[in-house]
Design goal:
single chain, 118 residues, alpha+beta, 50s Ribosomal Protein L17, Chain: A, 3 strands, globular
Length: 118
């Protein structure tokens, strides 16, 4: 039975899916907003929310966990802990927003922009 198995597969194996989501996480942290498909943005949202919540408490354990989730990216980890997380210190959750974008294309994918809330 498929109880609680709602993760999108994107037509990829597990390692390719993890690499895709890690690269999207890194891009979102670096650029503060990215354009992607709606399905990818919806899959990315819980991951980035968890990392921002974890980075609000600056401890060696949380830095190690965030660095591991980002695949060993020290520049992105530093930006997350020093610039992004302090903006959300008094916010309990909901750090990102997804805005649907109309992108005329030949395929049926819906485009979306995911960004941090100001």
């Amino acid at each position: 039975m498929k109880h609680h198995k709602k993760m999108r597969k994107f037509g990829r194996e597990r390692s390719g899916r993890r690499a895709l989501l890690r690269s999207l996480l890194r891009a979102l942290i670096i650029h503060d907003a990215i354009q992607t498909t709606e399905a990818r943005a919806k899959e990315l949202r819980p991951l980035i929310e968890h990392l921002v919540t974890r980075s609000k408490t600056d401890s060696p354990a949380s830095r190690r966990l965030v660095t591991a989730r980002l695949g060993g990216a020290p520049r992105e980890t530093k930006k997350l802990f020093e610039t992004i997380a302090p903006k959300f210190k008094n916010r309990a959750g909901g750090y990102t927003r997804i805005i649907k974008i109309h992108r005329p294309s030949s395929d049926a994918r819906e485009a979306a922009q995911i960004s941090f809330v100001e």
